[in-house]
Amino acid sequence: MIVNKDSLAVITGASEGIGFALSTELLKIGFQVIGISSNKNKILRMKKKLNHFGNKFTGICADVRNLKDLQLVAKKFDGPDLLILNAGIYSPVYCENPDIEIFKKHNEVNYLGVINTYVAFLKKMLTKKKGIIVIMSSISGWLGLPKAAAYGPTKAALRSFSQSARYDLEKYGITIKLCSPGFVNTPATSQNKFYMPGLLEPDVAAKIIIKNLESKKFEISFPFFFSYFMKFLSILPDMISYKIISSGTRNNDK
Ligand SMILES: NC(=O)c1ccc[n+]([C@@H]2O[C@H](COP(=O)([O-])OP(=O)(O)OC[C@H]3O[C@@H](n4cnc5c(N)ncnc54)[C@H](OP(=O)(O)O)[C@@H]3O)[C@@H](O)[C@H]2O)c1
User: Fold this and answer.
1) Which residue has the least CA distance to atom 23 on ligand 1?
2) Which class is domain 8-249?
3) I need a labelling partner for 186 at 20 to 30 A (CA). Which of 46, 58, 92, 151 fits?
């Protein structure tokens, strides 16, 4: 594993859900963790919960939409060995009544927020000539799913970005990993009223991600059966996948 006593992980969206679980699990195995998120109260709560790790954990309030703030944060620390670009939002969208502000916010946080953080921290990683960057996409990035018209395209964009960026970063010893989870039980998914197949707890998801950091796989996707099923759907002819998904999700709003 890439961990020695000085190994540093920077995680965005660290105050809750998958980001909080990743912070906790990485602290447990010896990483120093810098956790970033935008809400001060959530940062305070996170600091309290991780208090027993002492100065191994630093919680920082910054919005991933603000490149300048992220650059100021990056200036204060060494280049991370592990950069996890995880901050994200999800709101269901009804396409017969679209609200442009919801689309813009998804793009600004989920897509441009990742690029901002990447830009802010990359320089020092390039100098170090090593490190892993995890980009948090989703199975929703593989194919358009009901109510995901604002969320899904941002995750598809991250997939495309990661695929492109890895050609350039390889020669610097930096590995890009695309992470595409299925359903994880977090505040984001708590708004879903429908059955979520293969729902995992965040600590289980975090352990899977960490276990796969040094694997040769470009994409980390889980849980196994649900992700394979969705991958299969994504390569089927559209006429078939459309029928399967629409009949399987017809009652989700009820
Ligand atoms: N849960 C799932 O089933 C699932 C599945 C696939 C992919 N994912 C992806 O995994 C990531 C984490 O999801 P989650 O379910 O753990 O979400 P979550 O529980 O809602 O947590 C989201 C985190 O992002 C932070 N955040 C939101 N907007 C931010 C901003 N503008 N600047 C900085 N931080 C911001 C939040 O903190 P603040 O509010 O303090 O900013 C929070 O810490 C997301 O990218 C999500 O799309 C989740």
Assistant:
1) 13
2) alpha beta
3) 58
Query: What does the pLDDT look like over 211-241, one tens digit per residue?
Result: 999 899 999 999 999 999 999 999 999 999 9
The answer to whether residues 183 and 200 touch, using CB atoms and an 8 Å cutoff, is: yes
3-state secondary structure of 210: helix
Residue of 22, 34, 38, 64 to mutate, ligand 1, most atoms within 8 A of C-beta: 38
Q: Is the CB of 12 under 6 A from ligand 1?
A: yes
In short, whether 221's Cβ falls inside 6 Å of ligand 1 is no
What is the 3-class SS of 4-44, one letter each residue?
Answer: CCCCEEEEECCCCHHHHHHHHHHHHCCCEEEEEECCHHHHH
Q: What is the pLDDT of residues 77-120, one digit of tens each?
A: 999 999 999 999 999 999 998 999 999 999 999 999 999 999 99
Locate the domains of the chain by residue range: 8-249
Both tokens assigned to 134: 């995890």
